[in-house]
Amino acid sequence: xxxxxxxxxxxxxxxxxxxxxxxxxxxxxxxxxxxxxxxxxxxxxxxxxxxxxxxxxxxxxxxxxxxxxxxxxxxxxxxxxxxxxxxxxxxxxxxxxxxxxxxxxxxxxxxxxxxx
Length: 116
What we know:
There is one protein chain. This protein is mainly α. It has one domain. The chain has 2 helices and no strands. The protein is rod-shaped and about 140 Å long.
């Protein structure tokens, strides 16, 4: 019986040693994976910050475009009104010109000159 106990103790020691070896191997693997995950996380955070900065710049440019469009929208009635007043003034001025002057301006245009 003493031999059986000693054999069982040796067998148990061997099995514990195998388990400890496997545990040590797995521990090293987990440490390696953990280190790789930390490196991946750091790289992902850097890329995120870079992309976040790009979005911030794009958002700033979009804000400028929106402001320009709003300003143009506010200025549009004045721009159109001014253009219409100018066209109406030119039409009124042309209608007041003498017919002989209009013929002279038409002839000048035909010859390549610019009359106003």
